[in-house]
Write a structure and sequence with these properties.
Two copies of one chain form a homodimer. Chain A has 215 residues and is an all-alpha fold. Chain A folds into two domains: 18-64, Arc Repressor Mutant, subunit A; 74-214, Tetracycline Repressor, domain 2 (Orthogonal Bundle), CATH 1.10.357. In chain A, 75% of the residues lie in helices and 0% in strands. Chain A has helices at 18-38, 45-52, 56-62, 66-92, 97-114, 116-128, 133-150, 161-181, 186-214. In chain A, helix 4 (66-92) runs parallel beside helix 7. Chain A is elongated and about 65 Å long. Chain A starts with 17 loop residues before the first helix and ends with a helix. At the A-B interface, helix 6, helix 7, helix 8 and helix 9 of A face helix 6, helix 7, helix 8 and helix 9 of B. Chain A binds a DNA duplex (30 and 30 nucleotides) through helix 1 and helix 3. Chains A, B: InterPro entries: DNA-bd_HTH_TetR-type_CS, Homeodomain-like_sf, HTH-type_TetR-like_transc_reg, HTH_TetR.
Chain lengths: 215, 215
Amino acid sequence: MTAHASQGAKPRKTPVQSRSRVTVDAIFEATIQVLLSEGMTRLTTTRVSERAGVSVGTMYQYFPNKQALIIALNARYLNALAERVEATCARMAGQPAAEMVSALIETYWTAKTERADLTQALYRSVAALDNNVLMQDFATRVGAATMSMFRQTSDLPPQDATEINLTLTTVIYGAVRNAFERELGMEQITALKASLIDMCCAWLISFQHRTQMTA
Amino acid sequence: MTAHASQGAKPRKTPVQSRSRVTVDAIFEATIQVLLSEGMTRLTTTRVSERAGVSVGTMYQYFPNKQALIIALNARYLNALAERVEATCARMAGQPAAEMVSALIETYWTAKTERADLTQALYRSVAALDNNVLMQDFATRVGAATMSMFRQTSDLPPQDATEINLTLTTVIYGAVRNAFERELGMEQITALKASLIDMCCAWLISFQHRTQMTA
DNA sequence: GGAGTATATGAAGAAAAGCTCATATTTTGG
DNA sequence: CCAAAATATGAGCTTTTCTTCATATACTCC
């Protein structure tokens, strides 16, 4: 992974001592705080390092530029999210499709809700990036996990897994994100989640009916 | 200066002569082009005015700052989109809910697909804005139109209109956006649209069943 | 303890972007 | 045709931001 480093997106140095690991963590934390309090446009290297309690030079020792910092932060977050989704997928293997959908939405929703402000801040920070391999990679990685899960339902033909996977993931990720962008009250959010689950399940059932007919 | 407009988001001057209207249009067009060719981070007042073939000063005569320009551009786009959705809603009043959903998705989808690159560029440009009343206003406006439409279905109880409206709009807008963010091939896009319509309809049917039972 | 490596510092140069204003040109209306 | 209003200009001032580098401090391990 040291080779192609497309746009200087790689860390300059990798921390080896414990204090530097602390430093890098502090920088990430500071980035989040600045993102939340000042917004993406006012996020500068100086502000971040100030907040982190380190000098600008230190920051540049680990991140070759601002973009790399944002990318790294998002990569970190997306990685954690992917791990959780993967865990859910593994856990639900072999279950009925409706259970899978429900668990998937629950996982995704919870991960986003835990820190709603951060979720939104990160959404915006990635959008500010011109290049966007991150989301693409995330989609591929998580797509593989859900795909393998849907192939192992107890109540759906495996040959439909591709269509099911594409549709469900698109709808779920999209709806969740949109739900966050509107600023809704708690009751609406909760109702929305329930409806989303219902909707996905209703579609799956209609799917089963169709395949039964053709069978 | 006039009364301190909220965040300087208002146009400084409103064009009255025809040549100035041409100028403003050119600025909007240039903004789009720069957005597409250079991306949001490299979009600067200088670059935009250069592309528009006017001087920077001229730009600042109509837009007090860069943010105002982006806001105005998006407002313009969202207004056009809202009008189309409103037209569809008006046209579909009294029809079966499934027809409504289908028409709504079709309208939204077409509007986005017509200029997919622009759609994506605008998504990013708004996201880069720290403050975001635009989307909120759009959601409210379009929400009113769809709400009124769903209240007039031939096959659904009007008291469920609120839940139906919130759920469907969230799912549709979210899914459409997500579909654009992944870079999918034509066949996948088409399949996705069909599935989305199916899914919404399946949910509506399940909804009808439930309300029939309680009735 | 000391040589060598890792990490931290922050003043300062360079680049970029935002924005203004004094001046010039065009249009309008009487 | 002329004065007032509208519109256009763009050099250049200001502010912000990025980034580097020479130097200093801390750690590791023999």
